[in-house]
Write a structure and sequence with these properties.
Length: 338
């Protein structure tokens, strides 16, 4: 995950100056005290120890900057996004990673049905095979997003803050289960950890001990990362051997209704014909529900693809059609050149 810091002007839009943001710890806030009480009552955490952890933690300015939207949120470019991930460094490192962990990838693919190239592509996009896993204190990052989430969109701000509050709860549970201090974890500005950049809740729900050494280490064990990525996709319904996506073309304007339906597969390719959507005749197209995916690049013709069930599964890892398509394209490139 690449961190793009926004200008400090955004902090002023929050009604908070940079100095004020970093001036005090979380411990004295009523919302934090309520969270501590809930963790004590629900999970038996010691109030004094949690208070001490929050007393040592201050809001992180860079985390707030990182979640701020671009100045023009309407500007989205598929080609620019794709070029960040389907590029020479990740391809070269991906080929090397595949070669070094061939046996584990083969065994995991056979056990789960998730192709090796998909597993390798995800780890490459998420952390460049462990090169960039993040250096933010995870406790501080999640506390910042849980209790200092910026005023971006009134319709979603509260839900986003609640999500990070839940991940903070999951981090504390993970720390207790692994006998680590919650302050010892480091990862992305959004709280993601290790080679596969799992959030704490995903670690607790989907991470597995791939190297069978008795513990899960997503920071230092590629085998654990490989097995965990595959398990995540399998548990979210990955279908072995099923098509992920095919190219599509559109005509007329009825297809716009399909874009508004979102990325959940709903209609078979035969049904899509009535909306002016045709699939690539050179591809094997299953008679299965698909969604029409639009890939916009300003100044260039729109690209369209059909996203089948496995494409939707990829969006459970990161809920972005750009992300899922970049994973697929990198995976196909790695498969072709390795």
């Amino acid at each position: 995950m690449t961190l793009s810091l926004r200008p400090l002007l955004f902090l002023l839009l929050l009604g908070t100056t940079p100095c004020a943001l970093a001036a005090s710890s979380f411990a004295s806030r009523p919302t934090v005290q309520a969270f501590i009480d809930e963790m004590h009552e629900t999970h038996g955490f010691d109030r004094a120890r949690l208070t001490q952890a929050f007393a040592r933690t201050k809001p992180i300015k860079a985390v707030i900057q990182a979640v701020m939207p671009p100045r023009d949120p309407t500007v989205r470019s598929w080609q620019e996004y794709r070029s960040r991930f389907v590029e020479a460094q990740r391809i070269a490192r991906g080929v090397r990673f595949w070669q070094e962990h061939q046996a584990m990838l083969t065994a995991t693919s056979e056990q789960t049905g998730v192709p090796a190239e998909i597993i390798v592509a995800i780890i490459g996009i998420e952390s460049i095979y462990g090169r960039h896993t993040g250096n933010f204190g995870t406790f501080g990052a999640l506390a910042t997003l849980a209790f200092n989430y910026p005023k971006i969109n009134p319709a979603t701000d509260q839900a986003r803050a609640a999500l990070f509050r839940h991940e903070l709860e999951e981090l504390l549970l993970l720390a207790r289960e692994t006998h680590r201090s919650p302050l010892a974890f480091k990862g992305s500005y959004a709280g993601a950890l290790g080679l596969p950049q799992f959030l704490p809740s995903s670690i607790r729900s989907y991470a597995v001990d791939g190297d069978h050494d008795g513990r899960i280490d997503l920071d230092a064990s590629p085998d654990d990362a490989i097995a965990s990525v595959a398990n995540f996709l399998k548990q979210h319904g990955w279908e072995k051997g099923a098509t992920v996506t095919v190219n599509a073309t559109v005509e007329g304007d009825k297809f716009t209704a399909l874009i508004e339906e979102g990325i959940l597969p709903r209609r078979t390719p035969a049904e899509l014909v009535a909306y002016g959507v045709s699939s690539d005749p050179a591809s094997e197209v299953p008679d299965a529900p698909a969604a029409l995916i639009d890939l916009v690049t300003p100044g260039k013709p729109m690209e369209y693809r059909l996203g089948f069930h496995n494409f939707y599964v990829l969006t459970r890892y990161n809920r972005s059609s750009f992300y899922a398509m970049a994973v697929y394209d990198l995976a196909q490139t790695l498969k072709a050149v390795r």
